[in-house]
């Protein structure tokens, strides 16, 4: 598995594609991510030859869509999607189990850098597997940092 959190890696992006439901711009996502995230009955409907996209829009039920406008919604995934769930138990970091709740606890104790340091150390040790653990198919570190900043507002 390639190092998904390697900052030096540049992803080649397909032509921007809009979510068929909310019209937000989607981000290309690797096929391995969908294979890992979709429930078995939905995996059977996957067009492996299409380019797939992740919809970040919080209020949109669509998580993935493809160039033919085939969609996959939240209920068709094995895990809750951080960008689309408000629960405190939803992971912000899927590889190392940093939930909103756990990050809040560390922040309250004055250890707001602990989650980022922990994740960075594991990235350095080549332990992350964001392509198969994180529904967005890419490194969660930006999400974790952004969430920690939102707690201080």
Sum up the structure in keywords:
153 residues; alpha+beta; Arc Repressor Mutant, subunit A; four-stranded antiparallel beta sheet; 6 helices; 12% strand; globular
Helix content: 25-40%
The quaternary structure here is single chain
- Whole-Å distance between the termini? 37 Å
CATH C-level class of the domain at 82-151 is Mainly Alpha
Number of strands: 6
Mean pLDDT: 92
Extract low-pLDDT stretches: 7-14
H and E string: EHHEEEEEHHHH
Name the structural class.
alpha+beta
The portion of residues forming beta strands comes to: 5-15%
Count helical runs.
6
Named at the architecture level, the CATH assignment of the domain at 82-151 is Orthogonal Bundle
Strand order, sheet with most strands:
1-2-3-4
Please state the overall shape, judged from the principal axes of the Cα atoms. globular
Cα radius of gyration in angstroms: 16 Å
CATH topology assignment of the domain at 82-151: Arc Repressor Mutant, subunit A
Question: Mind describing the biggest β-sheet?
Answer: 4 strands, antiparallel
How are the secondary structure elements laid out?
Elements: E1 27-29, H1 31-37, H2 40-43, E2 52-54, E3 62-66, E4 71-73, E5 91-93, E6 98-99, H3 100-108, H4 114-124, H5 130-133, H6 141-151
Antiparallel strand pairs: 1-2, 2-3, 3-4, 5-6
């Amino acid at each position: 598995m390639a190092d998904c959190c390697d900052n030096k890696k540049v992803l080649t992006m397909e032509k921007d594609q809009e979510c068929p439901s909310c019209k937000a711009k989607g981000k290309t996502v690797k096929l391995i991510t969908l294979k890992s995230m979709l429930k078995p009955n939905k995996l059977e409907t996957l067009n492996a030859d299409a380019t797939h996209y992740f919809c970040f829009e919080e209020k949109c039920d669509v998580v993935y869509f493809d160039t033919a406008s085939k969609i996959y919604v939240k209920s068709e995934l094995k895990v809750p999607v951080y960008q689309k769930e408000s629960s405190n138990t939803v992971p912000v970091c899927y590889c190392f189990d940093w939930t909103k709740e756990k990050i809040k606890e560390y922040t309250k104790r004055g250890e707001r850098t602990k989650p980022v340091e922990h994740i960075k150390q594991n990235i350095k040790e080549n332990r992350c597997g964001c392509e198969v653990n994180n529904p967005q198919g890419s490194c969660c570190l930006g999400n974790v940092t952004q969430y920690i900043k939102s707690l201080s507002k």
